[in-house]
Write a structure and sequence with these properties.
It contains 10 helices and no strands. It has 191 residues and is mostly helical.
Length: 191
């Protein structure tokens, strides 16, 4: 039930930051930032679903798994570009539209990672690569995108930059790093 060639091609296709992925990332940053700004869980979930950040992360794990250094460089380069653009755009958003909530629970939730975040990222990554390698695709990838939040922590880090709040920035970047690392590790193990 595994389509090895199709899986490799599908993952390679989702790594690059060009064409539709540029626009989709821009929309995801705005949606996530607005969701954090108005403290709306459904809006933040929407941003998780539309974000293309998972592509280069899974590409990194696969590149290590198949020992393809060119693919690894391409994946890391595209991930780096996406992260920098996401941070810049969300920082600009929060400078223009300051957060005015007394208790921004959605924002705070992205600043205090726990061991459970490691489990979620790892097992979500396992589910994602298993689903991605099947001939018959289902809806697992959407669940993985929601469970292993990538865009909201980056936008929270942008909030930290905009407000010169090192605690928010460091916690959010740490959560993003945990999620990215353990999704890539899970992909590597399965590959």
């Amino acid at each position: 039930q595994v389509d090895i060639t199709g899986t490799i091609e599908s993952i390679k296709k989702n790594i690059d930051f060009k064409g539709p992925n540029v626009w989709i990332l821009a929309f995801a940053v705005i949606v996530a930032s607005v969701g954090l700004n108005v403290n709306s869980t459904p809006v933040i979930i929407g941003a998780m679903l539309i974000s293309p950040l998972m592509g280069p992360i899974i590409g990194t794990g696969m590149a290590v798994g198949i020992n393809d250094s060119l693919l690894l460089k391409r994946s890391l380069k595209n991930l780096g570009i996406m992260v920098v653009i996401s941070l810049m755009a969300s920082t600009l958003f929060f400078i223009i539209s300051p957060l005015s909530l007394d208790e921004p629970t959605e924002l705070l939730a992205r600043t205090r990672p726990t061991i459970y975040d490691v489990f979620i990222a790892f097992f979500g990554g396992l589910a994602g690569i298993v689903e991605g390698s099947r001939k018959e695709k289902g809806t697992v990838i959407a669940g993985v995108a929601i469970a292993t939040a990538l865009m909201p922590p980056l936008c929270t880090a942008g909030y930290g930059i905009a407000n010169l709040n090192l605690t928010y920035f460091a916690g959010a970047i740490y959560l993003f790093s945990i999620n990215s690392l353990f999704i890539a590790l899970a992909t590597f193990i399965m590959v």
